[in-house]
Amino acid sequence: MTRDILSMTYDELSQAFSAEGIQGFRSKQVYEWLHRHLVLSYDEMTNLPKQLRETLKEKFPIITCSVVRKQVSKADGTVKLLFEMQDGDYVESVVMKYKYGYTICVSSQIGCKMGCAFCASTLGGFKRGLTAGEILSQVYVAQKEIGERISHIVLMGMGEPLDNYDNVMRFISLVTDEKGINLSMRNISLSTCGIVPKIYDLLDKKLQLTLSISLHAPTNELRDKIMPVNHKYKVEELLAACRKYAGETSRRISFEYAMLSGINDSDECAQTLASKLKGMLCHVNLIPVNEVKESPFKPSTPERVERFVSILSKNGINATVRRKLGSDIDASCGQLRRKEKENKSEKEGDK
Ligand code: SAH
Fold first, then answer.
1. How far is Cα 304 from Cα 316, in angstroms, rounded to an integer?
2. What distance in Å separates the CA atoms of residue 22 and residue 27, rounded to the nearest whole number?
3. What average pLDDT does range 110-136 have in this prediction?
4. What is the phi/psi pair of residue 223, to 5°?
5. CATH number for 20
6. Nearest CA to 135 among 158, 115, 102, 103?
7. In terms of residue numbers, what domain contains 40?
8. Best mutation site among 333, 335, 338 for ligand 1 pocket (most ligand atoms within 8 Å of CB)
9. Is pLDDT of 129 > 70?
């Protein structure tokens, strides 16, 4: 039996090694190579005997990703990486530089089934969830590629993290493991379109991560139209879960709100939003929607966005407009993967 070693916790790895008759101290060495030195090839693990490396290659393959394209924004240094997974499909990550350090936005699935009307990730179709090791490898390979320490992670790339719950939880425990890369739980944000039962599961774990909710509309009438998940979990249920989450963890919830011109950016929407969030420990992040070729939505004007912020603020809701990074390099979800797929099929069509 072969086992994907990058997805294994330290205890699992030790047990598996011992079951194979591999000496105990080797587990520590291998785990540190992988998760502390980010060495993703047995041949580079120089303190392992050659014979052992061969055994490990065969029994415990390192399933990782490779960089197939790198785009660097001239405007702000944002780096967009397109990774090829071992099964030949693509995922993308974006590395952004902030005052407090480097943040990576990772993907949790190949494609997405959530169907949000404005999002490019949905257009390419859903393929599969990524393993914990595949999510982790985006962080490790990116860190090596840019040559800088990545200190913050946002699960805001392609896919719905709570639709790949077990693998994402495993990823989070590996990336915060003090024997490994040891990121602070507080530096991790998980973004969801609102799979309510999973928000309660997450709450039970009492993690100190930041929960981001892609709300995008304050009423069921509107949210039903742009986010199919709302047919299943209504705005009220979602916000009740959020209130409980913020109350019990004392962590501020971050609400994402993509401003779609003429759709969800009216004064009335701002007022309704403010009244529904009243008294919750939260923050609203307004994002003028990134235009996606196949979708009809246009970003709200800067004046509209400003007016929206001022209504929220007047009603006691903290709101900011997200700085747009990497807009010259298609740095929003799903866009690069789609381009790559289009290029590939054009090339195949040429043959
Ligand atoms: N599935 C998760 C995480 C991935 S999406 C979620 O829904 O939260 C990351 C964020 O980008 C979400 O808030 C999503 O709604 C938003 N988004 C998707 N397409 C966008 C676009 N074209 N313009 C602006 N934001 C977009």
1. 19
2. 8
3. 93
4. -65, -35
5. 1.10.150.530
6. 158
7. 5-59
8. 333
9. yes
